Amino acid sequence: MEKTLWKHIQTVRELSPLVHNITNYVVMNSTANALLAIGASPVMAHAKAEVKDMTTIANVLLINMGTLDEYWSESMLIAAETAHLLNKPWVLDPVGAGATPYRNQIIQKLLQYRPTIIRGNASEILAIAKSNAPATKGVDSIASSMDAVQAARNLVGQYGSVVCISGETDIIVDQKNQTLLLKNGHPMMTKVTGLGCTASALTAAFAAVIEDKTEATVAAMALLGIAGELSEKQSHGPGTLQMNIIDKLYAMTDVEFAEQLNVSRA
Amino acid sequence: MEKTLWKHIQTVRELSPLVHNITNYVVMNSTANALLAIGASPVMAHAKAEVKDMTTIANVLLINMGTLDEYWSESMLIAAETAHLLNKPWVLDPVGAGATPYRNQIIQKLLQYRPTIIRGNASEILAIAKSNAPATKGVDSIASSMDAVQAARNLVGQYGSVVCISGETDIIVDQKNQTLLLKNGHPMMTKVTGLGCTASALTAAFAAVIEDKTEATVAAMALLGIAGELSEKQSHGPGTLQMNIIDKLYAMTDVEFAEQLNVSRA
Amino acid sequence: MEKTLWKHIQTVRELSPLVHNITNYVVMNSTANALLAIGASPVMAHAKAEVKDMTTIANVLLINMGTLDEYWSESMLIAAETAHLLNKPWVLDPVGAGATPYRNQIIQKLLQYRPTIIRGNASEILAIAKSNAPATKGVDSIASSMDAVQAARNLVGQYGSVVCISGETDIIVDQKNQTLLLKNGHPMMTKVTGLGCTASALTAAFAAVIEDKTEATVAAMALLGIAGELSEKQSHGPGTLQMNIIDKLYAMTDVEFAEQLNVSRA
């Protein structure tokens, strides 16, 4: 699988997909930099007057609900509907799902447009699957990834999405009944804001140009996880880590990738 | 006092308070990273449809007026009212007070909800106390901290807040008639955008879990100031400084803190 | 010309102009840091209730359309009109021009207020001049700078602006019929999000205090380009580059500037 995943990384670098991001204010800069670092081309646009046009131009859509409000949620719905009608891949990052009734309500509306891929932490996946989720603590997960696997399978069945539960071990489930486990990354990554959001954006870039959306998800998550663990060795804390991850996304070699990759089937 | 302040820093690291931030676009990323670095858990949310719920879930509220507009100011008022009604601590950062009549008007409305702590530079504190303030120059202070002490005392009397005037010397005044002087920090910190905003956010995290709000304020301001002066030694300019401060907030030791702390009573 | 340009850099450091930015969410932090690094004083404000007041206080206005929407475009128009009526210099960065009809429509309205300086990539300059532009790919340019020179000359004639087409070679054209070529910078700068936006903001700072707006533009573009090429030598990728550029903007010496400057007349 290493060779296939690395080929996908090269494909993104070569084809430079245009990723339309409707994402939160906290991570716009770091998301754009991460997308540029892997060779993709980011655009951020949310105006109701142009969001349909932008999704149409782009190769893929990312919707991240982090700092949503009434205006932005309308834009998200227009964009998701556009992607759905055009059969264009789109990725949903349900940030903070379960935290407030409003957030849950918008997520349910977005799900109707059948996201190609859903990436969230365990609490979020549990919350959107309406399972018996422990209450979310803000935007950080308090549930473990394993708790959320059944919830993820329900989402796969209901919406046809590939679902990625990110955490210490990332778990990817899909319609072909595969369950992939990815054990890359480093705990200090949870101290850098928005690396989950970055993961979703990178996943979108891969989904734009890789036919197999499960492989696209694994490739993106592996690339970021490996960038994180390699960067941590050269970092003195989360400040240097945030910056070094961008460098490593840009400069990672096939040898580094192959040496670090830790993926398996459940 | 060193030991008490260090204990407070450890308390934040252990209890990881959930900080609800309604803050400006410029600093959302750096604020979230600073909060994560000290062990707190940040959430940014401003939708009128969920802001009351989010303040209710959180342990503390931070309101920073930097890039306010009509929608955001309504959200700020809902959140401040919620915190006030729930007796939940909340911190006001009156960014750019005095710059425009609109900004002043919103600040006066927010003050009615009696912020637990107000942190601003001298120009801002003078402006919100309606003293004879020199005109603000954008968001940077042109008044000295000492000029603003009487204005701060007026605010303490009127709203019961702890007031922190940040500057070369930070001055903290409170209802117990204490005046604390903190001489940590480094001039290069004024060349990094939003470190004042970071100071307010860290103060909120401390106020969430420390009973004595004056000590909470001093601990937060001292932690950031010391992180700044230690980081500056390893930095080549404000770019590296911004990143190194995050690392130092994350990794500061009790020895470093005790060696650098420069607090006194006036 | 080296000595004149360096004198302009010193003038910005000494006079610290207040730059009113209405810019996009992606770059607010990096723009503010770049402005602080060169000695300017940034303020970000967009509320319709205060935007006129803020433009009036400021020494210069920057309008960057990156993440515009209906509200923000109204604010931009109010601010541009205010600057125009007050004969205050203002800079337009037409991010993503040509990408959507909505974006093009707002740009045409803004142009009526005769921007002092327009800075964009070749695709954007072609798009706003309504030339036969190749379709924009999101916010990145796919046209070369040379293609856009006639379009730039048309804009100069129509609106009286200095026009800067940024790219591998930056081309600056003006009403005095000068065409200046600037060959500073490094290709890795295109992998850092928003350095074009930074270029426009720095140009605004120079335009605030330098009478000759062509020289102001060249000085700003040269400063950033040289900071980029010097920083790249110490960077391992776009993450460290973003940070090192801020350091270099802050600490650049006259010797470094003179050694690297590569400006000529066409």
From TrEMBL, chains A, B, C:
Its EC number is 2.7.1.50. Pathway: Cofactor biosynthesis; thiamine diphosphate biosynthesis; 4-methyl-5-(2-phosphoethyl)-thiazole from 5-(2-hydroxyethyl)-4-methylthiazole: step 1/1. It holds the Pfam family HK. Its cofactor is Mg(2+). Keywords: ATP-binding, Kinase, Magnesium, Metal-binding, Nucleotide-binding, Thiamine biosynthesis, Transferase. Substrate binds at M44, G194. It comes from the Bacteria. Catalyzes the phosphorylation of the hydroxyl group of 4-methyl-5-beta-hydroxyethylthiazole (THZ). Belongs to the Thz kinase family. This is Hydroxyethylthiazole kinase. It comes from Sphingobacterium micropteri. The lineage of its organism: Bacteria, Pseudomonadati, Bacteroidota, Sphingobacteriia, Sphingobacteriales.
